[in-house]
Input
Amino acid sequence: MNGLVPDLVPLWALILAVGIFYYVVFDGFDLGVGILFGLAPDTPARNLIMNSVAPVWDGNETWLVLGGVALLAAFPLAFAVLLPAVYFPILIMLLALVFRGVAFEFRYRDAAHRTFWDHAFNYGSIIATFAQGIIIGAFIQGFNVQGRVFAGHSLDCFTGFSLFTGFALIAGYGLLGAGWLILKTEGELQQWARRWGRLCLAGVVIAIAVVSAWTPLLEQRIEQRWFSWPDIALLSPVPILTLALIVWEWRALRGRADVAPFIIAVALFFLSYTGIAISMWPMVVPYHYTLWQAASSPNTQVFLLIGTVFLLPIVFMYTGWSYWVFRGKVKADLAHH
Amino acid sequence: MNAALLASRVQFAWVIGWHILLPAFTVGLSSYIAVLETLWFVRRREVYFRLSSFWTRIFAISFGMGVVSGVIMPFQFGTNWSRFADTTANVLSPLFAYEVLCAFFLESAFLGVLLFGRRLVPRWAHLVSGLMVGLGTLMSSFWILAANSWMQTPAGYRIIDGRFFPTDWVKVIFNPSFPYRFAHTVVGFYITTALVVLGVAAYYLRAARHADESRVMLYQALGLLTVLVPLQIFIGDAHGLNTLKYQPAKIAAIEARWDTQSHFPLTLFAIPDEKSASNHYALDIPDLGSLILTHNRNGTIRGLKSFPRSAWPPVIYPFFSFRIMVAIGLLMLGLVLTAWGLQFAGRLRTSRGFLRLCELASPLGFLAVLAGWTTTEVGRQPWTVYGLLRTADSVSPSLTGANVVVSFIGYAVVYLIMFPAGVGFMWRSVQRGPSEPATQGGIIQGGRPEHPVEAMPRAPEADEATAREPPR
Output
C-alpha cells in the first residue's frame, strides 16, 4: 500500500459506532424482554414474551460478535487492551448469554425443568446486561496502560461508578424491552408492559442524571468538553432533547401509542450514546490512545471496507426481511419448527 | 511455563474442543436439511417433509448451542490472548470479520424463517431459507479455516516491529495448507453428520419404527459415506504431504521420528519419550513410513533432533491423537464395506447386529474431528503462528494464574450443564421420532397450544391449507 490511501479511520469509527449502537438497540430490547420476563404474571404471558424475540434473538446477538471482530479489525490495539482490562465482566456476560441463549430451545424441550430454564433466561438476561453496563462504566473511567498492554489488575474495572452503570443499563434495556413488548403484544399483557416501562423509565431518568453528574468528575477533560464556553452552548441540544424525550416517553407509555414507546426509547439511547461518544472523542483506549493511534494498517482497513460496504447492506436487507416475516402482534401458536 | 499461560491454554482447548463439535454436526446437518427441503419441494413425497421437520428440530438445538459457544470464541483472543491479537490483527482480523458478515448473519436471519416461518412464507422462500443456512455454515468454515491455516502456514505478510502486516490478501487466504485443511475438515464434518443419520436410521430399523423414514435415511447416509470415506482418506494423505512440506516438526512428532533417516518404519504403537528422544515398546512396520509419507520406500524424513529442542511440539499428544483419527477412519471404511456386503446379500436392513454397530458408530465422527483437531493444533506448538510467534508470547500479560483458573472453572461448569442437557434433548427428539408430535399431552388453552412447539409438525396437506390463509 502506498500513501495514496485516504484516511479511513473516521469511516471505520463511524461503522463501528453504528454497529455497536445497532447491537445495543437490538440485543438491548432482546435482553430487556428477558429482564421483564421474570416479572410476567403467568405461563401464557411468558410464552408470548419469549415468542416475541425467539425468531430474531440469535441474529441480534450476532452483532455482538461483529462488534468484537470489527473492533479487532479496525482498532486492534483497543481490542488488545480493553478485553483483558474487563476480563471478568466479559466472562460473566458470555456465561450469562450462554444460559439465556440455550433457554429459547431448552425450555420447550424440557417441560420437567421449565422453571429452571425460565430462570436461566431471566437471570441470564439480567446478569449479561449488568456486565455490559460495567464494561461501559469501566470504559468511561479509563484504564491503566503501559506500552501496548493493559497494566492494571483484572479487578480494577469493578468500581462504584461501573457498578452504577451496570444497574443503569438494566433499567435502560428494560425500557427498550417494554417498548418492544408494547409493539408486539396487545390487551392485558401490553398494559402490563406499559406499567413496567414507566418504572424502567424512572430508573433511566435517575441513571442519566447521575451518570451525567458523575462523569465530568471522573475526568477533567470530560468536564472541560461539556462545561467550557462555547462548547456548552453547542452541546446544549443533547441534554435539552433528552429532557424532552423523557417527557414524551412518559406520555407515550401512559397513552395508547403502540410504536412510539419503543422508538422514543431508541432515541433516548441514541442521545445517551452520543453523549458518551462526545465525552470520549477521540479516545478509543481512554485515556491513552486515540482512534488513529490504535488503528489497524491502511491495507487491512481497505481490504475489509471493500467487503463491508457490499455485504452490510445485504445483511440489512435479509435481516429486515426476516423481521418482516414475523411482523405484527405475536401469537401463542407461532408455528415452531 | 507460567500459570496464566498454562491455564489459558487449558481454557482455550476446553472452549474450542466443545465448540468444534457443533459445527462438526451443523455444517453437515444444514446441508442435509437443504437436500431434504429440495427433495420435498421437487418430489413432494411426504417422507422428505417429515424428515426435514425432524432434523430441523434437532438442528435448532445444536445451532443454538453453536451460537452461544461460538460467541465466546472471538472474545478469547482478546481476554486471554491479547498479545496474539495485537500482533496478528492486521492480517487475521478481516478473515474473522468476513466470517461474521458472510456467514453468521446469513445463518441467523434465515434460520429464524426455517424454524418458525413455514406457514408464514411461500414454499420457495422456505426452501431458499434452508439453502441459505447451509451456505452460511460452509462460508463460516471457509473463513475460519483460512484464519486457522494461516496460523499453521503463514503467507502474504511481512513483519514490522514484531507485528504482522498484510502484503498479499490472496496469499493470506489461500495459504499453503488452506485448501487441504478446508477439504479435510468439511468432508470430516459431512461424514460426522452422515454417521449420526445412519445411526438414527439403524435405531429405528431395529425398533421397527418409521419404516419409510429409516429406509430413506439409511441409503442417503450410506451413499454419502461410500463416496466421502475413501475420498477423506485420499484428502488426508494429501494433507499429510502438505504438512510434511511446511511443518516438518509436526510430522516428526506425529510419527515419533527422532532421527533423520531414510527407509523409516511406520510406528503403529509406541510410548514416545521426549527426555531420551526415543520410543519405548515400539511396534514398527519397516519402510512403510517412508512409503506413506514420501510415496517412496527410500524416502527420507527429518527427525525431531534436527530441530532445536525449543521448537518441539509435545510429541505424545499428536502421536496418539493421529493414530486415533486414522483408526477411526479405517473403522468407518470397514463399516461402509460391510454395509455393501450385506446389501448385496439382501440382509442390510434386517441384520440386527450390523444395525447395532451402526448405532454405536454414530459418535465416531465427533471423536475423529476432536482427534484430528488435537493433532493439528498441538502439533503446531510451541507456536501460535508457526515458526514466528510463540504461544508463550501470545498470552495476555495482565492475567494471573488465579484469574484464569476462576474463568476456566466458570466455562467448565456452564459447559458441563449445557452440553449434556443439549445432547439429552436431541436424544429425546430422536426417541420421539419423525412422525409424532414434538411433545405429547400438551395442555390446550383457548384453542391454542400452550407452547409453540406443540403446533408442529402438521401433515403437509394441512400445512398447505394454512399456508394459503393470511398469515395472521
In short: Chain A has one domain: 9-325. Chain A has 14 helices and four strands. The first strand of chain A starts at residue 145 and ends at 146.
